[in-house]
Amino acid sequence: MKLDIIGDIHGCYEEFKQLTEKLGYTWEQGYPQHPQGRKLAFVGDLTDRGPSSLSVIETIYLLVKNNLAYYVPGNHCDKLYRFFLGRNVKIAHGLETTVAEWEQLNKKEQQRIKGMFKDLYENAPLYHILDNQKLVIAHAGIREDYIGQYHNKVKTFVLYGDISGEVHADGSPVRRDWAKYYKGNATIVYGHTPVREVREIQRTYNIDTGVVFGGKLTALQYPELTIKSVPSSLPFIAEKFRTFENQPVVVKQSP
Description:
Elements: E1 3-6, H1 13-22, E2 39-42, H2 53-65, E3 69-71, H3 75-84, H4 95-103, H5 107-122, E4 128-130, E5 135-137, H6 152-160, E6 163-167, E7 173-175, E8 187-190, E9 199-201, E10 204-206, E11 216-222, E12 226-231
Parallel strand pairs: 1-2, 2-3, 5-8, 8-10
Antiparallel strand pairs: 1-11, 4-5, 6-7, 9-10, 11-12
Helix pairs in contact: 2-5, 3-5
């Protein structure tokens, strides 16, 4: 199994296209395909905040439908799904950009995009267990003892991280550093929390390098465990990135 696992895209379609091209994919059919049969995988949070969320939805829907990619939902995906169901969700924290894009479409196109996203979300597992249980892809990560379970506590963890229930002064949730204590044999690849560089610790890789906050969009190549990235076209917002004490970073950078 050879995968290129891409971090949180958040509507940054141009960077997504650039990264896949850097990884050797071609777009002759309107979506990326690799001449050597590699597949893409996505850690969720396809939409919100960036300029082109709907193009990202459509491309990844086509990839998954054509068995060319693996997708797991993130918390932003979950919220957009609930919006499309007509639930009472707060249109904030980035959702407003996706909703504004969608509302500019005519009714027929709105229904088409809504149908694509609902189908993508409803057919996605909460997390993927791949390569004979040697790889797990989960949006915000997953505890070792949760792997193979799917109850509500697992869903909360996978979508939002190891939250304590407390909040920081800016209103953001306090998240425990679960990866520091992970002892499992499976490699865990996740995103959710923006970091300046890929964080590798205890067989876990956080690959959300904050493209929508002016960082970069990153892919982890599996099983090689090498990194490829492209820079963001958006302004850099330093306070959006989390730092960890004695933070280890990946050194296997491929050109």
